[in-house]
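Write out the bound-state structure for pyridoxal-5'-phosphate.
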Amino acid sequence: MGNLVLDGVDVVELGRELGTPLYITSRSRLEENIREYRKYFKNADIYYAVKANNNLAIMKIISSRGLGADVFSDGELYLALMGGFKREKILFNGNSKSTEDIVSGIEAGVRFSVDSIDELHAISEIAEEEVEMAFRINPDVSPETHPKIATGLKESKFGIPWEMAERAYEKALKTDHIVPAGIHCHIGSQILSPDPFIEALEKMFDLAIRVEKLGIELDFLDMGGGIGIQYSEEEKAPELKEFSERILDTYEDRLGDLKSEPNLILEPGRSIVGNTTFLLTKVNAVKRAFRNFVAVDAGFNLLMRPAMYGSYHRVVVANRVDETPSETYTIVGPICETGDVLAYDRMLPEVRRGDYVAILDTGAYGFSMSSQYNGRRRCAEVLVDNGRWWIIRERESYADLVGRQIIPPGI
Ligand SMILES: *Cc1c(COP(=O)(O)O)cnc(C)c1O
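---
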């Protein structure tokens, strides 16, 4: 039979039984990704970036393997705690923390990554006891050599500018309730070479030396997330082993420059969950027009990445995996927007209404960026594991579309 299988489960059968669209996640692949991180970054702390995928079952698997969490809002903090992450291993990030965010972080007793002096003062005013923190530093890694890095450049909204970092730590030292304990940076996402990480890490150590001279003992250096995964056939799959060797070599080399022995923290999101998941969709119509359009039942309401970033995902006709590609098709969603395209010009076997199309590598920034636009209910999520499966999130109901809306009297 020419059906696509994930972790021992025929995904077409699953689609027939549960309906589509459907996010289907492989437990073994997730466990394998976690195992690799633990193996290659043995002495480092791995803080999973919750924003990539905040499904509770998935987070439970990750937290139960000893990983910590990187959260970006009070809501993500709540989800991370529900997902089993320990407060000692949670870092509260974010460039625009509300009073509510700060209060929830202090109440949970987590550490903060502070993005501005304004935030530093806000935390100091709200806190009644000591709060451990790092500044998020913008290391300004060179855009010429690394053009795709979006968050670690001078222009980015994130972090304390490199030149002002030392002054910021000086201030932190003198601020009530604030205990500077680390340095944090995050240079971007889907990075396929270790080079920019090495550049950022070198800069973090240069800063660490100066920060120590202020009398600060450093407990951690957190170099963020961003290690990429293979999305396309042409792309070379980044080897975690290579990243770890380069990063750990530099780390151990430079550790001798410091008096303290800070722990290394990494915050992977995409490289933990990205390749674990298929988005299974069903074909509603095939139309021969300017392009050969295949209209499926999921669009940017469920997978924002192609429309938002022009990102590439491999596409498979899930019930025809043994047929040879014969034509070029463009996969579009059901949303009332021209930009609702999941994949352009793919060679696929002949596609018909009722076929199933799987969009691969959708475990990161897939469901977590979904919306109800066009009155589309969010789909279900399923975990598959060695021939067995579990629904880990039910499809939304029509009542979920009405949500918490209130119609005032007299209308
Ligand atoms: C998004 C984010 C991450 C995770 O990035 P990936 O590319 O998914 O690994 C880690 N740290 C911070 C601060 C982030 O904003």
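---
The chain has a mean pLDDT of 96.
The radius of gyration is 23 Å.
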